[in-house]
Amino acid sequence: MENKDMTGVLFVVEDVASDKHPNLTGHVLIKGEKYYISAWSNTAQKTGKKYINLKLNEEQKKQEP
To answer: How far apart are CA 50 and CA 48, in angstroms?
Structure first.
């Protein structure tokens, strides 16, 4: 799947083995450079609000099952 510049895509990870593994993964294209995204669904301890924490990498790293 190819994206236009400044767009991206995230996919749900079906088998999340632990809290350390992302719930969503995908990629985004920024100024012609592809960045890989890992995302975790979290809940703030004080407020109980749900949020998504993101991490971007220039290289895609294989995830160990």
So the answer is: 6
Q: For residue 18, give the DSSP letter.
A: S
Single out the residue of 9, 24, 7 nearest to residue 63, CA to CA.
24
> Smallest Cα–Cα separation from 25: which of 1, 4, 6, 45?
1
3-state secondary structure 9-57: EEEECCCCCCCCCCCEEEEEEECCEEEEEEEEEEECCCCCCEEEEEEEE
Q: Tokens for 46? A: 């004080």
Chain segment 7-37, per-residue pLDDT in tens: 999 999 999 888 889 999 999 999 999 999 9
